[in-house]
Amino acid sequence: MKKLILTGFLLSNLLYANSSPITQEKLKEQLMPLLKKSSTYEKFKPILAREGQIGETIKTFTKDGLETTNKVTVPSYIVKNTTDAKEEYIVTKEKFEKRYTFLKKENKIWSFFKPIGEIKVVKIKNEDDFFILAPWGEKMIVKKGDFLISPLDYSEVYRIANKEFFETYKPKERLQK
């Protein structure tokens, strides 16, 4: 069985691309030590968002292709990043309200929001692509150079593609004492 190396850390018993996706439980269990030691990042680019419709399906495309698919099953927002890829994804209303604040209306459908959440990150160094089970239960591809991230409460782990990560996140600045 192949093993995945994440930032010098060996994740045992994890499967790779042609096998079952790695579960959230396994990701959290094995990444927790690395995440807790990692630097804190903040999203600096505003996003566009609109209310999602129950049953609506969103396919998330990054510069390197299809990342995942998700369906609105509870009150949620459709978020569109202001990156080159303009990737869209679904965020539940509960999570959205903790992670974004309203800035201004863009048009009748979309509004700009400022991100307020912080994350911990682990950069992927393994050669082979693999899949994780995203927090919403769908497969999500992970490639060399991508980041597996978690909010500071460590409630979930998901991928951010390399290019889009650097377009939207920066290290959290620490206050000087």
Helices and strands, with pairings:
Blueprint lengths: L3 E3 L2 E3 L12 H14 L2 E4 L3 E5 L5 E6 L2 E7 L4 E6 L6 E5 H7 E6 L5 E5 L2 E6 L6 E4 L5 E4 L4 E5 L6 E3 L1 H7 E3 L6
Antiparallel strand pairs: 1-2, 3-11, 3-16, 4-7, 4-10, 5-6, 7-8, 9-10, 11-14, 12-13, 14-15
Please describe what this structure looks like.
The protein is of the alpha+beta class. The chain has 2 domains: 4-41 and 118-171, no CATH class; 45-115, no CATH class. It is 16% helix and 42% strand. The protein is built from 3 helices and 16 strands. Strands 15-14-11-3-16 form a 5-stranded antiparallel β-sheet. A hairpin with a 5-residue loop joins strand 12 and strand 13. The longest helix has 14 residues, at 24-37. It is globular, with a radius of gyration of 16 Å. Mean pLDDT is 89; it is low at 1-18.
Descriptors:
five-stranded antiparallel β-sheet, 3 helices, globular, disordered N terminus
- Tell me, rounded to a whole number, the average pLDDT: 89
H and E string? EEHEEEEEEHEEEEEEEHE
| Strand-residue proportion | 35-45%
Helix content: 10-25%
Main sheet summary: 5 strands, antiparallel
Structural class: alpha+beta
What is the general shape? globular
Number of domains: 2
Report strand order across the widest sheet.
15-14-11-3-16
Number of helices: 3
End-to-end C-alpha gap: 49 Å
The gyration radius over C-alpha positions equals: 16 Å
Q: What's the number of extended β-strand segments?
A: 16
**Ranges with pLDDT <50 over ≥5 residues?**
1-18
Assembly state (oligomeric): single chain
